[in-house]
UniProtKB/TrEMBL annotation:
Source organism: Anguilla anguilla
Taxonomic placement: Eukaryota, Metazoa, Chordata, Craniata, Vertebrata
Superkingdom, natural source: Eukaryota
The name this protein goes by in its record: Uncharacterized protein
Length: 29
């Protein structure tokens, strides 16, 4: 159970990182 919650936390961090990076990526392309 603990590892499952840890995985969800990692996914949430990836989504936050993607939201932060996406404007820069779109501007470059």
């Amino acid at each position: 159970m603990l590892s499952y919650l840890h995985t969800l936390d990692n996914i949430a961090n990836l989504w936050k990182l993607a939201d932060y990076v996406s404007p820069f990526v779109q501007r470059d392309s």
